[in-house]
Amino acid sequence: MVKANENYLKLPGSYLFSTIGKKVREFGEANPEAKIIRLGIGDVTQPLAPSIISALHSAVDEMGVKESFRGYAPDLGYEFLRNAIAENDYRARGCDISADEIFVSDGAKCDCSNIQEIFSLDNKIAVCDPVYPVYVDSNVMAGRTGSYDAKTETWSDVIYMPCTADNGFAPEIPEKTPDLIYLCFPNNPTGATIKKAQLQEWVDYANKVGAIILYDAAYEAYISESDVPHSIYECEGARTCAIELRSFSKNAGFTGVRLGFTVIPKELKAGDVALHPLWARRHGTKYNGAPYIIQRAGEAVYSPEGKEQLKAQVAYYMNNAKYIYEGLKSAGYTVSGGVNAPYIWLKTPGKMTSWEFFDFLLEKVNVVGTPGSGFGPSGEGYFRLTAFGTYENTVEAVDRIKRANI
Ligand SMILES: Cc1ncc(COP(=O)(O)O)c(C=O)c1O
Fold first, then answer.
1. CATH of the domain at 330
2. Are residue 43 and residue 64 in the same domain, yes or no?
């Protein structure tokens, strides 16, 4: 008889944002007059930049003409996009990454959940706590995480690296040696980041113990400080220990357009096995390429006008981040993040749990955020607000929270 993949049954509760969505929907139905402001999920609100719209239009036109029509895209992405990425995201920052080490995809969520497939099930993963839930859940589905302890909200075979106020929300090298290390900077959910020297320590450590770092740089466009690395390949030795995951969702507003990429250097190995051919094989077998139209839109991100327009878009969101950070700080909240990232991480007031504060904000001021505990046990007592709302909503939400005077 057919059997389901029982690893899926081990997943506790529903995906964090589904739970939040349900709560907000129910509250909205019961209180139709409430003007709910959503600063929870990290989705963008600003329209696509004009240069991207124009690239989309012309690519659509090309698809309507026999001579320029395109069918399946190359598995690993069109050369024009991979060249633009290699040039602008890597060579311009002094990183030695070539176009054929870049694998174009339809976003970082798929890549960071699928990448574990090319590694043995015996590998031990290490994750930050709190963490973007996809890293852990995808390993649960694969059967790599052992058993779940509902009391501690942890998996027996996962190494957790607490990121707390005491360590500046930066993970420390764990006592047990991991095989795969998930790092995400600028960080979702804490908005924290680490300096280049700190990242270099991780690269040196991974090379020493033979581990691989899965480096999620989805928020690199939000970096404002000069000593914060945009790519792990800025560190010496990263080519032999790191895979980098990138997204067009946050730097260019592609959350609904869908585009991302993964970088696997040619010399990166797991034991004796080169990983580049494995991911190429995986891509070729399970993926038929991001659409031509979307890859042309991605190329426009790197045009002079695109760069200018997107710089302004990032600045718009970071202005929101500043408003939230300063507004809540002046109201007595303990806040962090928001300087190199579009997330503000705040301590819940009094002795409120993360979910109690979520309910309080939803019911009293109709503002939706994300409970820190949803990202892991060390997130308990914290709350995440995103800067991705409109400026007007951001101002209104912060003013409402301040007026709630908790
Ligand atoms: C850390 C991190 N990685 C990846 C993603 C997913 O990006 P994409 O929209 O490209 O799938 C997100 C989205 O919120 C994220 O926060």
1. 3.90.1150.10
2. no
- Tell me: do 296 and 351 sit in the same domain: no
Which of 43, 111, 112 has the most ligand 1 atoms within 8 A of CB, as the residue to mutate? 112
CB 141 within 8 A of CB 121: no
**Average pLDDT across the chain, whole number:** 96
Q: At what angle do helices 292-300 and 50-63 cross, to 10 degrees?
A: 150
| 255 and 396 share one domain | no
Answer whether residue 390 is part of any domain: yes
Domain count, the chain: 2
- Report the separation in Å between the CA atom of 216 and the middle of ligand 1, taken as the mean of its atom positions: 8
Question: pLDDT digits over 202-248, tens only?
Answer: 999 999 999 999 999 999 999 999 999 999 999 999 999 999 999 99
Place of tokens 């960071």: 112
Residue 128: Cβ within 10 Å count: 26
Closest Cα to atom 7 of ligand 1: 108
Token representation of residue 110: 């798929």
- State whether 234 and 314 are in the same domain: no
Per-residue model confidence (pLDDT) at position 16: 79
Q: Give the CATH number for residue 282.
A: 3.40.640.10
- The pLDDT tens digits for 52-67 are 999 999 999 999 999 9
Are 396 and 172 within 8 A, CB to CB? no
Domain end marker among 304, 331, 353 = 304
Which tokens in the block code for residue 119? 């590694």
What pLDDT shows up at residue 13?
Answer: 77
**CB of 354 closer than 8 Å to CB of 376:** no
Residues with CB under 6 A from ligand 1: 42, 107-109, 112, 132, 184, 188, 216, 218, 247, 249, 255, 260
User: In which domain, by residue range, is 167 found?
Assistant: 53-304
